[in-house]
Amino acid sequence: MKQKEIDSFYQGFSAEVESEQCGWIVDKYGISWQIVPRMFLDFATKLSPATYQQINQQILTMKKIEIAQIEKLI
Fold it and tell me: What ranges in the chain are assigned the alpha helix state H?
């Protein structure tokens, strides 16, 4: 999933863009969704524990996930 896809999910689903933390959005029906790039699924097994922890800490500071900021840590 590239940033363009993430942005389109936020614009299409979120009732208030950038209102939630850590990639979570709430749609107009009040249902919560977490937008998670595919690359994140491999992080726990393919990255060092230190890098994985840095990425998790970075994500905690984000509302919408910004892939470019995460890629700087890899």
Answer: 3-13, 39-46, 49-60, 67-71
